[in-house]
Write a structure and sequence with these properties.
The structure holds two protein chains of two kinds. By secondary structure, chain A is mainly alpha-helical. Chain A is built from 20 helices and two strands. In chain A, a hairpin with a 7-residue loop joins strand 1 and strand 2 (about 185). Chain B is built from 15 helices and two strands. In chain B, helix 12 packs antiparallel against helix 15. The longest helix of chain B is centred in the middle third of the chain and has 36 residues, at about 120-155. Chain B starts with a helix and ends in a 7-residue tail after the last helix. Classes of the chains: A mainly alpha, B mainly alpha. At the A-B interface, helix 1, helix 9, helix 10, helix 11 and helix 18 of A face helix 1, helix 2, helix 6, helix 7 and helix 13 of B.
């Protein structure tokens, strides 16, 4: 079996195209920047006599940027597509073979986009996202990783923990005769494991924690931020002081103090979990009660369901005492989760508080107060829905930030098992031999970067679209 | 104004005390002390001996009292063993206990003795802080001008192609944490295996087997050169550039829609002069606050980059102290971090009031 090349047989044609396009793109970008700085780049506006001025050099640079970028992108996409029709991995190359491995993801992505574009006018803010190019690109990247996490078992070429002899630190595309697939697409790491499969499995590790932790942080931040902003006074001063306290802590110091094996013996993570996990239950109970308290049967139903399900999950997640054994969390996972929620919630609190202070001066809040609605009804059913735009945007940004935080934890080897495939600890494993073998660290690094970039672009698109409302 | 500063200082002091207490509490947890006893005493100590060691070395009793001793507002502990030998916080074994001062804590300038480096904390932290200071200075020199130029360029014509390109770059740079950009930069510029160093070597621009930049900044401790310092500085700066550039852009676009800018344009003032003379000064108020508040973030970046590039500064010391259970050193590190964070917050608040005459606080 031969070693795979990056682009396979399609590369003989496409590789030169790609190289030239990238070179032109670089030159054009530099030229454009120089033109802008030199003041040569002015918009083409009609002059006083109604004629359009000659094209400026800056404009030519812009055109060069656009076309060279499209050419480079086209060449990459063609290489990926060529992989699908090539008969074997050798002809498909590394990129082509990877594209083939991701087939469930492409299928799911295509289905999502076709359905969403078809019904986008009926889907509210989510549908509006598809009006913005930036938002769509971001959404596509995020959903790529979400589907990768879901279908990870079908995508991997090799057990992410298996070590095959002779493949230690080998370059991407190396033949792996012992493996069922036959190749290590992105090479082997320092323990001769498959970098590609570990990267794919890492997506699952990251996406298992980051969105959930962000959601919990939002529950805590909203439940505390609403009354602080609405009532103000001593309550506000006190909670704000606590929030500023946590925010003034350098995050890494806090992680080094909160995520250690020693601290698990003292039970502090469990106490924190018991405190923080209570907030979603409080939030939902108050939410239902404030709306339906005039209709006791309905209220009792909703609050009852919330309490039964919530306390059941609570007993399992926080104290690992679920009588039925459905809900549970490993101690080190709980420690990481709680710390990330703890670090994130003061930021959410500050945003919610600011939004509430802004919105509570509106007329519809005064109308609600005049109608005799209770404060919690006004906060949860009048103010919160009207603050949803900035909150959704912040939610996307914060998932990205949480991903970065989890990566930081992994990078310092805090709270994760040593051979876990999550991106942070894989980068940490790879960095020791970075000078000689950069590929084991590069794959998870680029994966993490693209996920966070996707989330930021998505947030940007959402912000643009929600401002248009 | 004076009252405002005074009140801010009061809250700051309260925050500093609360934060240092939390750090003190979390570093002096029972399992940490037991670990310390085993590293300082012997690994094979019995459970009982460990408890005795903790009691004899002033680590038992109320956490508030111990915090007070560390701070220097409660008299230091003393212990007389069965041989009649006295030990205490304020004097070494064998010294005269009567001659030693009663109080010896942070306020008296006694930062303790590092159990990992085996030196007084002050001595081991001082030159480390200086090293980090050089790093920070270089980062600021790169980050602030770059991000302001990028922000102003993209903000002066909102929606133009330049704006979109630069905004995409800013978003990409905020999406790249230091441990990712560090790895990518090393792979691109500092390995003989991949990136552009082999290409340059092929064309004879650099010596064969050499790299464009060095992937380790250890040598920069003695002698800072372009070769060994570029990558750590760029790694920290990149993450901040995007954020400050976006803030500058937001503030610049807001200024550019103001009435006085339109008036100036209609008077026939060249666009360049409008930007340089009329818009820039007002657009730079908000980024000042952002740059000051960026310091706590830089602290994170410093910790990551110093461990990645093996530069023995403050961040590296913090990691060593934390992973080796060096309680006095970790406490000192956290005091430095907390003071830096709170001071920058104060400066940004006061500076904002000074720069923006529309804001008058109590």
């Amino acid at each position: 079996m031969d070693q795979l090349t990056w682009t396979g047989s399609a590369g003989t044609v496409l590789l030169p195209v790609m190289q030239i396009a990238v070179l032109v793109l670089m030159l054009a970008l530099v030229a454009k920047l120089l033109f802008v700085l030199a003041g040569l780049d002015v918009p083409r506006l009609p002059g006083p006599d109604g004629t359009i001025a000659a094209r400026t050099p800056g404009l030519f640079a812009s055109l060069a940027i656009r076309y060279s970028f499209l050419a480079a992108l086209g060449a990459v996409l063609l290489t990926l597509a060529a992989g699908a029709v090539m008969p074997s991995q050798v002809e498909a190359g590394i990129l082509g073979s990877m594209a083939v491995r991701f087939w469930p993801v492409w299928l799911a992505l295509a289905a999502t986009f076709v359905l969403s574009l078809r019904f986008r006018r009926r889907l509210g803010l989510y549908g509006k996202l598809f009006d913005s190019t930036v938002g769509m690109i971001g959404f596509a990247i995020v959903m790529f990783w979400v589907f990768t996490a879901i279908f990870a078992d079908m995508i991997i070429t090799q057990d992410p923990f298996a070590q095959l002899s002779g493949l230690k630190n080998k370059v991407p595309g190396i033949a792996a005769p012992e493996s069922a697939y036959g190749w290590y697409l992105l090479g082997g790491d320092h323990l001769a494991r498959d970098v590609f499969s570990r990267m794919v499995m890492g997506a699952r590790e990251v996406l298992k924690i980051a969105p959930a932790a962000t959601l919990f942080a939002f529950m805590v931040g909203i439940t505390l931020g609403l009354p602080a902003g609405y009532f103000g006074g001593k309550l506000d001063t006190f909670i704000s002081f606590l929030a500023n306290l946590v925010l003034a802590f350098p995050v890494i110091l806090l992680f080094y103090l909160l995520v250690t094996p020693e601290i698990r013996d003292t039970g502090i993570p469990i106490v924190l979990a018991g405190l923080l996990f209570l907030f979603p239950i409080i939030f939902l109970t108050v939410l239902w009660n404030s709306r339906y308290y005039t209709n006791p049967p309905q209220r009792n139903l909703y609050v009852g369901i919330t309490l039964v399900l919530g306390l059941w999950a609570y007993s399992g997640l926080a104290f690992n005492m679920d009588p039925l054994g459905v809900w549970s969390m490993e101690p080190n996972m709980l420690n990481v989760f709680v710390s990330v929620v703890f670090v994130n919630s003061p930021g959410v609190f500050r945003i919610v508080r600011g939004l509430v202070m802004d919105i509570k001066a509106r007329d519809y809040v005064a109308a609600g107060q005049t109608r005799g609605e209770g404060p919690w009804y006004i906060m949860l059913w009048e103010i919160l829905p009207n603050a949803r735009g900035p909150l959704i945007v912040d939610f996307c940004l914060r998932i990205g930030y949480t991903t970065i935080l989890l990566g930081t934890l992994g990078f310092f080897g805090l709270g994760v098992s040593p051979d876990s495939p999550d991106w942070g600890s894989t980068i940490d494993d790879g960095r020791k031999l970075l000078n000689l073998f950069p590929h084991p660290a590069l794959a998870p690094a680029l994966a993490l970067m693209s996920l966070v970039l996707g989330l930021n672009l998505l947030a940007d698109g959402l912000r643009e679209e929600s401002l248009k409302d | 104004m004076g009252l405002f500063v005074l009140r801010r200082l009061g809250v700051m002091l309260l925050t500093a005390i609360a934060l240092t207490f939390v750090v003190f509490y979390l570093t002096n947890l029972q399992p940490n002390l037991e670990k310390l006893a085993r590293t300082e005493g012997s690994v094979r100590m019995t459970e009982e001996a460990v408890q005795d060691w903790i009691a004899q070395n002033g680590h038992s009793g109320s956490v508030f009292l111990r915090y007070g001793q560390w701070l220097g507002v409660v008299p230091g502990w003393t212990y007389t063993d069965e041989k009649g030998q006295m030990r205490g916080r304020c004097f070494a074994i064998g010294q005269d206990a009567a001659a030693a001062p009663d109080y010896c804590g942070l306020l008296q300038g006694n930062w303790g003795f590092s159990t990992f480096f085996k030196t007084p904390v002050m001595a081991s932290l001082g030159d480390k802080l200086a090293a980090t200071g050089w790093l920070m200075l270089a980062v600021m020199l790169v980050m602030v001008p770059t991000s302001l130029i990028l922000g102003v360029l993209s903000g002066m014509r909102e929606g133009s192609a330049t704006d979109r390109t630069l905004s995409t770059f800013s978003i990409a740079s905020t999406a790249t944490p230091e441990y990712v950009s560090g790895v990518v930069l090393v792979a691109l510029f500092a390995t003989a295996a991949t990136g552009i160093s082999p290409i340059l070597a092929e064309y004879g621009l650099i010596e064969p087997k050499k790299t464009l930049f060095l992937a380790s900044a250890t040598s920069a401790m003695d002698d800072i050169t372009f070769w060994n310092f570029t990558l750590p500085v760029m790694t920290i700066a990149l993450y901040g550039i995007g954020y400050i550039a976006r803030m500058t852009r937001a503030s610049m676009t807001e200024v550019m829609t103001q009435q006085y800018i339109r008036t100036a344009r209609l008077k026939g003032v060249p666009f360049r002069t409008v930007v340089m003379r009329h818009a820039l000064r007002n657009a730079l108020i908000a980024p000042f606050t952002v740059i000051m508040l960026q310091f706590p973030w830089l602290l994170n970046g410093v910790v990551i980059v110093e461990s990645l590039f093996n530069y023995k500064g403050f961040g590296w010391t913090l990691v060593q102290a934390a992973s080796n259970n060096d309680i006095p050193l970790l406490l000192a590190c956290s005091v430095v971090a907390v003071v830096v964070v709170l001071l920058t917050q104060l400066i940004s608040d006061i500076g904002y009031v000074f720069l923006n005459p529309r804001i008058r606080l109590a």
